[in-house]
Design goal:
By secondary structure, the chain is an all-alpha fold. Helices cover about 80% and strands about 0% of the residues. It contains four helices and no strands.
């Protein structure tokens, strides 16, 4: 069975991959999308009754956490060195991704 990508997630990924600065792409992919994956795996592990799936998720989650952390470390140093106007542009991008997620959540009854 193939599950299609949700419209809001496709919009988020498209917005991220067409961003005009690698920092925005890193924020969108490493921090936002990987953060969503980490949360989804955490929730899945909490509710599954399958021991094998729980064990697999326990192994996968630290890797996802590293992806998120990598984004924070790598992006943080670059943002600190940016001109104030560039930082504001990146902050606006990050804000817009969070608004996109919030709106999707509201449309879907607080579920992604």
């Amino acid at each position: 069975m193939i599950y299609p990508i949700g419209a809001w997630l496709k919009e988020l990924i498209d917005k991220t991959l067409t961003a005009n600065h690698w920092v925005k792409i890193a924020i969108g992919m490493n921090m936002v999308v990987e953060g969503l994956a980490l949360g989804a795996f955490h929730n899945m592990r909490a509710v599954t009754t399958c021991d094998l799936l729980r064990e697999i998720l326990t192994c996968v989650m630290p890797d996802e956490a590293r992806h998120v952390a990598f984004g924070g470390v790598y992006v943080g140093k670059t943002i600190a060195a940016m001109h104030e106007d560039e930082r504001e542009d990146v902050a606006q991008f990050a804000f817009e991704t969070l608004v996109l997620m919030r709106n999707a959540r509201l449309r879907n009854g607080n579920q992604f």
